[in-house]
Model the fold of this input.
Amino acid sequence: MTKVLIVYATDYQNTFKMAEALAGGVRSVADCQASVKAADAATFDDLVAADAIVLGSPVHMGSIDWRVKKFIDSCCSAAWMKDALVGKVGAVFATGSGFGNAGGGCELTMLALLNNLAELGLIIIPLPKSTPGYTTGGLQWGPYGRSANPKLEPVGVNEDMLSVARHHGIHIARAAKALQGARIFG
Amino acid sequence: MTKVLIVYATDYQNTFKMAEALAGGVRSVADCQASVKAADAATFDDLVAADAIVLGSPVHMGSIDWRVKKFIDSCCSAAWMKDALVGKVGAVFATGSGFGNAGGGCELTMLALLNNLAELGLIIIPLPKSTPGYTTGGLQWGPYGRSANPKLEPVGVNEDMLSVARHHGIHIARAAKALQGARIFG
Amino acid sequence: MTKVLIVYATDYQNTFKMAEALAGGVRSVADCQASVKAADAATFDDLVAADAIVLGSPVHMGSIDWRVKKFIDSCCSAAWMKDALVGKVGAVFATGSGFGNAGGGCELTMLALLNNLAELGLIIIPLPKSTPGYTTGGLQWGPYGRSANPKLEPVGVNEDMLSVARHHGIHIARAAKALQGARIFG
Amino acid sequence: MTKVLIVYATDYQNTFKMAEALAGGVRSVADCQASVKAADAATFDDLVAADAIVLGSPVHMGSIDWRVKKFIDSCCSAAWMKDALVGKVGAVFATGSGFGNAGGGCELTMLALLNNLAELGLIIIPLPKSTPGYTTGGLQWGPYGRSANPKLEPVGVNEDMLSVARHHGIHIARAAKALQGARIFG
Done:
């Protein structure tokens, strides 16, 4: 069995919906299971038990939600000290209001999440532009659910965005399966 | 007289139009003049003569157009070695297809341009979300002209985007005037 | 009087020492005062009262300490909604173990802090390479105090690093004075 | 046979030495071959023929050497339009003077290279801190060869840096082998 851990924080359920859609994609792949945990509930042991780790966060002022960051500062930092997660698979996603029509800071936010995964030695799964739903729900680093319209009204994530998340989950699960047991590092 | 130099590269005239709109904003401020130069025509002396330096680039694969980069590698590198531009004012803008509806890599592209300006010791003018046109033409780091629709068809930059560029020019000119003669560094 | 607010978090007093050094630089400029506040004590009103805002953070897994991020998510987000800080001056600094001798993730960490400042509409003060102490204590985005040696032993920040922080404080104070009363935006 | 393509530009042979060291690592893995090509000689067909693509660049003003960027703008952009490289393996490395002791802009430079690889849909190999030589030659995103001392004198890349590059090559080759034939995307 290949295990994918998805850690998220959510303000208005949009990031949670993206996390669930991604988990659905994971579960559609044979012999793969997904565990969705809020950042304040996920543990160091959850990280160690997983074959792939996915982090999702709302974009707040162009960087990670502080609850996700608190999880990183405590659990992921500890794993970094011990080289405990090297060689697992990693990926990210984000949500946000997207005010300005240019991503609203989602690129640096995803890169902040990815910086953590790279430091842990995780193999990173990007989001190819050929992914279904990419037209309105994606960046090369992962799915992005824009949850507000141009007037900053909270319209929520749409089907395209959830579709991108679902397919990202499929990709992550497949990569984790393909790399399971392979010795890449060390 | 306060002088603003705008250096750009363009593929389909969109970045050029943004450069011209920005120059128009500069020229609307009393005692300010703007010079718009293509990256392969701008020189080290142009940099030294300016009070403010603005770089604009199409987004290609999430980073700067190579022609702008060639200008940076030759002229700006030389200025860095000599600390020749420390204390001037700097700003950026970009254009791109924006495929995916999440900025299409414009954030890292603007940061690559800004990394150059920061290394040169320039004081950076951001783009406040209250700028007219920001709704569909901006990121915190500068104006972004999305020139393609969701189907990747080249529809060109719109009035909102040009408006953001124009106001960015006004802000840059005012800042360069306010800081002219001030000794900030050294 | 020109007021500079410095908000920080600290684990082993290194970021605090850098904050104090930076405050010392501010206070050496005529008619300038500095206020140093821990991230969990700083308030929205502190932000509004300041002419310049400086954020300092330890680097944890290549991004901001969660306590600084919590301050940003609460106080700075609120200021963004209201456009309450547009046109003030902003700057950043960081500390970290620097393992690997290539910055240890400090560049993305400073950019995460700066993304917040840019969204707030702050004019960014970079760190020119001509700043005293830069040789071992700086990046173009701000002072960096490397507090561990290559073996990850905690040796603390050195005089060069504190010198860079002090001069950054001088630059920030001068810029805030020069721009005080100037109308740049809107 | 698993094929790794390494594309680079070099000013003083340091990036070339890192490329050769990385290629040596690739070749030490059974059934793997490495091809080292200068950016102005590499072609679209080289990209398509490779199982893994590695980009290496000197850091110039915090971003990619213009020659590498020209290769990206022409060959990689074309591949992006056609989704021609999705699912291959990707990785990066950089060299630079590192003035300031905080990476000298190498993090944003590697991220600019990686932005291109992520847009192409490549699975990214990071650099775990447990890699031999990491102490003085690495960042989470890849090997970094600091080629100047604190006085900006050109001392060249050292054995630690070449060791990191060699091991990065081993990791990349193993990952490309493990993923060969696997269908991850689409």
The two ends of chain D are 24 Å apart (CA to CA).
